Amino acid sequence: MANSKFEYVRNFEQPDNLLPNTWIVVRIDGRGFTKFANKYAFEKPNDRRALDLMNAAAKAVMSELPEITIAYGISDEYSFVFHKSCVLFERRSSKLVTTIVSTFTSYYIYLWPTYFPETPLSPPLPSFDGRAVCYPSVQNLRDYMSWRQVDCHINNLYNTTFWALIQQGGMGNLDAEELLKGTYAADKNEILFSKFGINYNNEPEIYKKGSVVFRAYELVEPGTHNAAAEADGLAEPVQQSKNQTEIDKKRRAKARIVIEHLDIIKDEFWDRRPWLLS
Ligand code: ATP
Ligand code: ATP
Ligand code: MG
Ligand code: MG
Ligand code: MG
Ligand code: MG
């Protein structure tokens, strides 16, 4: 098409390509979900339907974007990780973030009736914000994931105790808040056990650990040589041919996507799934 005299305005667009060779994390978070949760009467402290819906939307995002290696979700947020070699959208931040946010939101709304058949959505409709952050090393990326999972644990222990005091202890919100001020994890465990007979360790894993979404390949046994991966070309050192990259991409697109509630702070999760970080 011929250049028009208006076309110079394109030069006002700023490049926003993310640093090469770094792990990209796009984290999305529900806007005003405290209010949203009240409007749709989410069960407190954890509405299982709402978590399942978040997970289903995240799984759909992962199947539409095979470049995503792993995702982690808690409450109204989800973190999506792109491999450091990812070149999708030339690593343009706004493209990556907006595509994830809009794909996630579309599925959240599309799948809503499956999880909340009795309460149809009405405006204002749910929406999400998003940001992209680059992590230069595997250690930084793992620390990021650990940070989110620790957050999940801290919030869930607090919320579980807070709502037990209210729902089973008949306490008011303010009194419960006052009682929990300055308490440590051990104190909350003790309150749960002595007052309500709740052993926090027996709470559902999905609430305690959050949700990890990833492609399921064959697990590596702890402490063994990864022969399966080697036979599969996974253990091949660096520099893949373009052909191999294409094969890997197709293989990723076909792999089953699973949702689990595992510890991602300890080494075991990563050691047994070396394809996630290699
Ligand atoms: P912002 O727009 O700043 O993110 P927010 O109200 O969404 O505001 P968050 O810090 O994101 O604040 O907190 C999420 C809120 O949604 C919390 O109040 C949390 O209790 C609620 N929530 C999210 N998921 C669930 C769930 N599955 N069950 C019960 N409550 C939930
Ligand atoms: P990208 O993901 O790079 O944006 P794209 O296929 O969406 O790829 P665009 O340059 O955004 O490419 O072009 C939008 C496409 O959608 C065009 O092919 C256009 O013909 C089609 N399209 C959009 N709106 C309409 C419409 N109302 N009627 C017919 N075709 C439409
Ligand atoms: Mg927020
Ligand atoms: Mg929020
Ligand atoms: Mg949140
Ligand atoms: Mg388009």
TrEMBL record:
Residues 139-266 form the Thg1 C-terminal domain. It catalyses: a 5'-end ribonucleotide-tRNA(His) + GTP + ATP + H2O = a 5'-end phospho-guanosine-ribonucleotide-tRNA(His) + AMP + 2 diphosphate + H(+). Residues 6-136 form the tRNAHis guanylyltransferase catalytic domain. Transmembrane segments: none annotated. One of its GO terms (molecular function) is magnesium ion binding. Keywords: GTP-binding, Magnesium, Metal-binding, Nucleotide-binding, Nucleotidyltransferase, Transferase, tRNA processing. Its EC number is 2.7.7.79. It comes from the Eukaryota. The keyword Electron transport does not apply. Its cofactor is Mg(2+). It holds the Pfam family Thg1C. Binds 2 magnesium ions per subunit. InterPro entries: Thg1_C_dom, tRNAHis_GuaTrfase_cat, tRNAHis_GuaTrfase_Thg1, tRNAHis_GuaTrfase_Thg1_sf. Mg(2+) 2 binds at residues 29, 76. GTP binds at residues 75-76. The keyword Cytoplasm does not apply. GO terms for biological process: tRNA modification. Mg(2+) 1 binds at residues 29-30, 76. Belongs to the tRNA(His) guanylyltransferase family. Adds a GMP to the 5'-end of tRNA(His) after transcription and RNase P cleavage. PANTHER family: TRNA(HIS) GUANYLYLTRANSFERASE-RELATED. This is tRNA(His) guanylyltransferase. It comes from Triangularia verruculosa.
